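Amino acids appear as letters; backbone shape is given numerically. Here is one record.
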Amino acid sequence: MKITKILAGIAFLIFFIFLSIIFITGVLLYKPNSPGSATQNSSTYSGGSIILNMTEISKHNNVNDCWLLINNKIYDVTSFISSHPGNSQTILVNCGKEST
């Protein structure tokens, strides 16, 4: 009976140490996305990951190919330009730019 309690205590201690190591590792490796730092943006596409920088995003800056970077997410708004409730210039001035 006493050995069972000791083994249970040891198992709990090992489990607690294991969880602590996972938590501390997560805290040390955590890198938040800072708003406005649009040097890179990661987006998921067909199960893969695509990294884009502002140089690539800035190439999509006309009425036939318009991308906006808003809150570190990339939007292709080309098809929305003609139906924007304001006017097309509202979007066109921001094509290929960070528009948050």
